[in-house]
Protein 1
Amino acid sequence: MAATATSGASQTIRGVKNTVEEKLKFVTSESEGIEPIMSFDDMCLKEELLRGIYNHGFEKPSAIQQRAIRPIIERRDVIAQAQSGTGKT
């Protein structure tokens, strides 16, 4: 029963986060090279990491993850700012 309540709360939180992300505006100092990557599969992540991401119930990257993961993997200096709870960690 507790798992069901937690699942429902988790889905509600994700729904709110998706609504907030749709309204966000992104500003970058470089107009080139910061294209959003819409799925974890397209980020060139290791298979073990992808398995963990999907096992934890994440279906698609958050807006900040779509823009920050690729430059981080490319070892570029990245300063990213996003609201609390959007997946920066």
Protein 2
Amino acid sequence: MSADSVLNVVIIVIALFNVVVAGPLAIYLRSLTSDLRALKEELDRDMARLDEQLQKFKDEVHVQYVRKTDYVNDIREIKQMLKELNAKLDRKADRA
């Protein structure tokens, strides 16, 4: 076999490899890359939507809910006011 025929065989083997293995592999990888981009875009949209919902919840939580410490302090204040009112009524009742 001459060098030219060996070179031709090598070129044919490389061409067959490209057609049989590398071509379909490249097509598959391109498809996979496209699918991953689509999934990333969908994930980015979902994350943006979740961020908006979280911000909306943070904005509304102060209107709908009361912290336990605030509730306890408010109840304590109301009880103190009721005690003061009761004491005033008792003093007025004693005068009458």
